[in-house]
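Supplementary Note 3. Input sequence used for the single-chain structure prediction.
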Amino acid sequence: MVETFLKYLSSEKRYSKHTTDSYRKDLEQFASFLLFDFEISQTESAGHAHIRSWIVCLVDKGIAPKSVNRKIASLKSYFKFLLSREYIDENPTARIKPLKVEKELPSFVKETEITDLLDKLEFSDDFSGIRDRLILELLYSTGIRLSELIGLSEQDISFYEKTLRVLGKRNKERIIPFRNSLNTLIGSYKEAKKNQGFEEQVLLLTDSGKPLYPMFVYRRVKKYLTAVTTLSKRSPHVMRHTFATHLLNKGADLNAVKDLLGHTSLAATQVYTHNSIEKLKAAFDQAHPKA
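The predicted structure, written as discrete structure tokens, is reproduced below.
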């Protein structure tokens, strides 16, 4: 039944391969637990007590509450699917609640550090250097996700309108505007790409002309961010956080930022307003006579 469920996620719910792979991993881990601890070979035969036992086991192993909650969400979706298809008569996850998680503010790079990164840091003028700079510029200037960056093709760029067409989660398309300097950089990169003899329609390529992969981008971003910031988190997603935080700090409309990020819910975007509030508190503490 797991394969049927995963096929449903990819074909009907239009979840990405990365997301369906995460569901698969969670369900396989739960199936192994059932078989090893309870000698139950069919996942759909699990009851409330079995699921509770698995959660306790995960917590005892030191798995972070956020990760445990993702696994709980996977089980909830799976058993809800089974119930809707009448494979089971009762949902064993109905009374299962997620663990409490301390809210953590998104990490972001300071504006001065971004200036150092994009305006002062030296990049080589060969294909690799231009590409690395473009990776960083795209992440900061558009706020796109890592998967969206890797999936960009040359046809997704409109030089005339200065817009980027992005295929986000659940294959939802959105259009993101970008500034003139990025227009120029993309043009320089395409010229360098042509000079390398690379004809791949995927926009961003490795030094050998192959499409980028997640770890490649992660290593590049971490390398350059390490030169300008002491943040413990130095990932492509931090650049997305930085994009959103800087926009809101400059007074951007929350709904506009939501659309640019491709969020389906305003609540997902509101987390970035906390950084803006923290900035206001810092300014108050520093400047107010009675602070």
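The first helix runs from residue 2 to 11. The radius of gyration is 23 Å.
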